[in-house]
Automatic annotation (TrEMBL):
PANTHER family reported for this sequence: 3-KETOSTEROID-9-ALPHA-MONOOXYGENASE, OXYGENASE COMPONENT, IRON-SULFUR DOMAIN CONTAINING PROTEIN
Gene Ontology MF: a single term: oxidoreductase activity
Domain Vanillate O-demethylase oxygenase-like C-terminal catalytic: 94-269
InterPro entries: Cholesterol_7-desaturase (IPR050584), VanA_C_cat (IPR044043)
Superkingdom in the source lineage: Bacteria
Protein name per Swiss-Prot or TrEMBL: Vanillate O-demethylase oxygenase-like C-terminal catalytic domain-containing protein
Keyword Oxidoreductase: yes
Length: 281
C-alpha cells in the first residue's frame, strides 16, 4: 500500500497557544515527533530522527507533515472575518481510524440517537434529501441543503430550530461544517474537525470553531462541543471493522449516507488509504 499521498498532507499536531520550549511529544502516522517553540517563539516540529519537519500555524493550531506538501493548508475564509470568536476546543484521543472520525462527523442520521435532545430528538429522525458533490476545481467533497430539526443547535440557541448545514471535506482527515448561526441568521457558524493520525487505528481529534456568539462564556462553548464529541467517541471506538472500508460492497449504505459514499470515493481516487480497509476480510 502506497502511503505517499497522505504522507504529503498537512496535519494538526498541537495548539499554538500551548507551545513551550519543553515541547510536546506525540506521533504522526506512527512516527514520534516533538512539537515545541524555538527561541523566537515560533513553532518547531522535529521527527524521531531529529529532522526538522515542515510547519505552519493556522486556525490556532500547529500543522506539520512527514513529507513534502504540494499545496498550502486549505482556506477557511471565516477564520479572518472580524467579529467572530475563535474557540480552541482542545483534543480528544479516540481509538479509531482517523478516516472513521471524519466520516462520523459527516453523518447526520445519528443525531437523534447519539446526541439526544441536543442535536436531534425522536420522532424527528428522517434525513431530508440533500445535495452531495465532489467539486473538481477545489478537489473537495461538499454536502449542501442539509436540514435537520435540533432541540439545541448551538450553545447560543434558545430553543429548537430546523438547522441548515453544509459539510466540506478539504483534506483526508479534516472536515469543515457550516451551520445556521442562531444570533445571526445571515451568517454561518463554522465548526471544524482537524484529525491527527497517530496510527491507522488511533487519532487525536482537535475540534475548532469560529462563531458569532458574544454572550456565552468560553468555558461553556468548549464544554458544549466536548460533550458532543465525547458522545461520538463511544460509537467510534466500537465500530467494526475499526478501519474505514473503501470497497462499496463492505457496508450497506442508505440514502442518508450520500456524503459518506462521496467521501470514500474521493479517498480511493486519491489513494488516501492510511486508516482504510481496502478489501473485505
Amino acid at each position: 500500500m502506497s502511503l505517499q499521498a497522505m504522507i504529503d498532507e498537512w496535519y494538526p499536531v498541537g495548539l499554538f497557544s500551548q507551545l513551550d520550549s519543553a515541547g510536546r511529544k506525540t506521533r504522526l502516522m506512527g512516527e514520534p515527533i516533538d512539537v515545541a517553540s524555538d527561541a523566537d517563539g515560533n513553532a518547531r516540529v522535529t521527527g524521531g530522527d531529529g529532522r526538522v519537519l515542515p510547519v505552519r500555524v493556522r486556525y490556532g493550531h500547529v500543522w506539520s507533515s512527514l513529507g513534502e506538501p504540494q499545496k498550502e493548508i486549505f482556506p477557511i475564509p471565516e477564520a479572518d472575518q472580524p467579529g467572530r470568536r475563535f474557540v480552541d476546543v482542545g483534543v480528544v484521543r479516540v481509538r479509531c481510524s482517523p478516516l472513521r472520525a471524519v466520516e462520523n462527523f459527516l453523518d447526520i442520521a445519528h443525531f437523534p440517537f447519539v446526541h439526544t435532545d441536543i442535536l436531534g430528538a425522536e420522532p424527528h429522525t428522517e434525513v431530508q434529501n440533500y445535495k452531495v458533490e465532489i467539486r473538481e476545481e477545489e478537489d473537495e467533497v461538499w454536502a449542501t441543503q442539509v436540514k435537520f430539526y435540533q432541540p439545541q443547535a448551538a450553545k447560543s440557541a434558545s430553543g429548537g430550530i430546523t438547522t441548515e448545514y453544509m459539510y466540506r471535506v478539504p483534506a483526508p482527515t479534516c472536515s469543515v461544517l457550516y451551520k445556521t448561526c442562531p444570533p445571526r441568521p445571515s451568517e454561518w457558524d463554522v465548526i471544524t474537525l482537524f484529525v491527527q493520525p497517530l496510527a491507522e487505528d488511533l487519532c487525536d481529534v482537535w475540534p475548532w470553531m469560529a462563531l458569532f456568539d458574544d454572550e456565552t462564556a468560553m468555558t461553556d462553548l468548549i464544554h458544549f462541543q466536548q460533550t458532543i464529541f465525547l458522545q461520538d467517541r463511544s460509537i467510534l471506538e466500537n465500530q467494526i471493522p475499526p478501519l474505514l472500508p473503501l470497497d462499496p460492497g463492505m457496508e450497506i449504505p442508505t440514502r442518508a449516507d450520500l456524503t459518506s459514499i462521496a467521501y470514500r470515493r474521493w479517498l480511493k481516487r486519491h489513494n488516501y488509504t492510511y486508516g482504510a480497509q481496502l478489501v473485505a476480510q
